[in-house]
Amino acid sequence: MSDCGLVGMAAALAEGSVSARQLTEQALLRIAAAQPDLNAFRTVRAEAALAEADAADRRLAAGERLPLLGVPLAVKDDMDVAGEPTAFGCAGSFAPKTADSEAVRRLRAAGAVIVGKTQTPELGQWPFTEGGAFGATRNPWNRSYTPGGSSGGSAAAVAAGLVPAALGSDGAGSVRIPAAWTHLVGVKPQRGRISTWPEPESFNGLTVNGVLARTVADAALLLDAASGAHPEDLHRPARICAVEAARRTPRRLRIALSFVMAFTATPKSLDPEVRSAVERLAARLESLGHEVIAEDPRYGPIGLTFVPRATSGVRDWAERAPDPALLDPRTREAVRTGRLLGGLPLRVSRRAESLLRRRVGEIFGRFDVVLTPTTATPPLRIGALAGMGAMATDRAMIAACPYAWTWNVLGWPGVNIPAGLTDDGLPMGAQLLGPADSEPLLLALAAQVEAAEDWAARRPGRGGAAGAAGTGRAGRNAEGGPP
Question: Name one Pfam family in it (predicted).
Answer without folding.
Answer: Amidase
